[in-house]
TrEMBL record:
This is Uncharacterized protein. Transmembrane segments: none annotated. GO terms for biological process: iron-sulfur cluster assembly. It comes from Acinetobacter tjernbergiae DSM 14971 = CIP 107465. It comes from the Bacteria.
Length: 240
């Protein structure tokens, strides 16, 4: 398994905000400046293709961070879809994460990635890598509960399916935090047919993991289901 690392990009230009508004699940125009938020670019089936942290410096200047193993593919995606937009994507280089509350902030100061992974998993900060792209829907990862999806914004890639799931359906599986005594399973591993690993890390004498699961399916496994931060502990479905 390759070492987890992160790549930052700058996106600058008069069309930057408008372009991102048509790409990501978050309402870019309403983003507070200088706060990092984890959001997604979906495929046409409403599943997450790229996970990215977005920070608005101003409406014409954004900092975007992806995991390193998605960086090249992400860059090609932005340049392909943004070919006719007045903006420029530049790679800044490696950045390092720190958990702040339930969010992640990045800087050029080196941090311990293992510590970040433990804290991110404990705070319900799932992250997508090349291994897990096209597997999960934003609602399943509780992105809406961490201000990474807005259901009242205009069109973006996969928006019809993401909105339909919110307004007309209820997810069968969603994000849970588990702890177990075993070797940490790789991302995308199925622990049974209704439990799939998103992220995992060795912890104490076992592992911690964020999984997408049916709650009843977790009862069939020898794992402890831990509480997520309060804002992420509720029902993922739309209040009726």
């Amino acid at each position: 398994m390759s070492q987890l690392a992160f790549t930052a990009f700058s996106l600058n230009g008069v069309d930057a905000q408008k372009f991102l508004q048509g790409q990501v699940t978050i309402h870019v125009e309403r983003l507070s400046e200088n706060e990092s938020r984890y959001t997604a670019i979906c495929d046409l089936k409403g599943r997450i293709h790229f996970g990215l942290w977005i920070k608005k410096l101003n409406p014409e200047s954004f900092e975007l961070v992806t995991v390193q193993d998605q960086a090249e593919e992400f860059s090609k995606h932005i340049k392909k879809f943004g070919a006719f937009s007045k903006m420029k994507l530049d790679e800044i280089g490696s950045v390092y994460p720190t958990v702040v509350g339930i969010q992640t902030e990045f800087s050029s100061t080196e941090t311990d990635i293992h510590i970040w992974q433990v804290q991110a998993i404990q705070s319900g900060q799932a992250w997508i890598t090349h291994t897990t792209e096209h597997l999960f829907q934003p609602q399943e990862l509780r992105l809406h509960q961490r201000d990474g999806v807005h259901f009242d914004k205009g069109c973006y890639l996969g928006q019809e399916i993401v909105a339909r799931l919110w307004f007309k359906a209820k997810p069968k599986h969603w994000l849970h935090l588990i702890q177990a005594k075993d070797v940490a399973p790789a991302p995308a591993t199925q622990l049974n047919k209704d439990v799939e690993v998103v992220n995992s890390i060795a912890f104490e004498d076992g592992y911690l993991a964020l999984v997408i699961a049916k709650p009843a399916a977790l009862e069939q496994l020898s794992v402890a289901v831990l509480d997520l931060p309060e804002v992420l502990n509720g029902d993922v479905a739309r209040p009726s």
